[in-house]
Design goal:
Elements: H1 2-19, E1 39-44, E2 47-49, H2 77-81, E3 87-94, H3 112-123, E4 126-128
Antiparallel strand pairs: 1-3, 2-4
Main location: membrane
Organism: Prunus yedoensis var. nudiflora
Membrane topology: Multi-pass membrane protein
């Protein structure tokens, strides 16, 4: 009886040790292997205020937009239920590649309305999530 109990304990311990390497999972994510030069796309989320707690679209302010247009990029149900507004962005990076002085976009001067909106959002302590 004692031998049987000890054997079960050892088998269970060995099983748990071997399975622990396969047990990592974060909902909404998956492992991805990158090689040198692979493109990494950056996504943006909504902007919120600590005062008003009302989320605003990242592109409601005059930021550089992707050349192919803004597209929703929510990847799972949790992001939708939490009210995240995840969208694509023009920012691109390459894995294991040092780059500097990258031109992203050119924007004209802000109009009076854009300036006032930007100033209002800064005064409301808007921050990116």
């Amino acid at each position: 009886m004692a031998f049987s109990h000890r054997l079960r304990t050892w088998v269970l311990t060995i099983f748990l040790i071997f399975q622990s390497g396969y047990g990592w999972y974060l909902p909404g994510s998956y492992p991805h292997k990158y090689v040198v030069g692979d493109t990494l796309g950056v996504k943006v989320n909504s902007l919120t205020s600590i005062d008003t707690e009302i989320p605003f679209s990242y592109y409601s302010l005059p930021f550089c937009q992707p050349e192919d247009g803004v597209k929703d990029s929510a990847e799972n149900l949790g992001e939708l239920l939490m009210g995240d507004r995840i969208e694509n962005s023009p920012y691109r990076f390459k894995m294991y590649t040092n780059e500097s002085e990258i031109f992203l976009c050119h924007t004209g001067p802000l109009s009076g309305d854009q300036f006032n909106l930007l100033k209002k959002r800064i005064d409301e302590c808007i921050r990116s999530i």
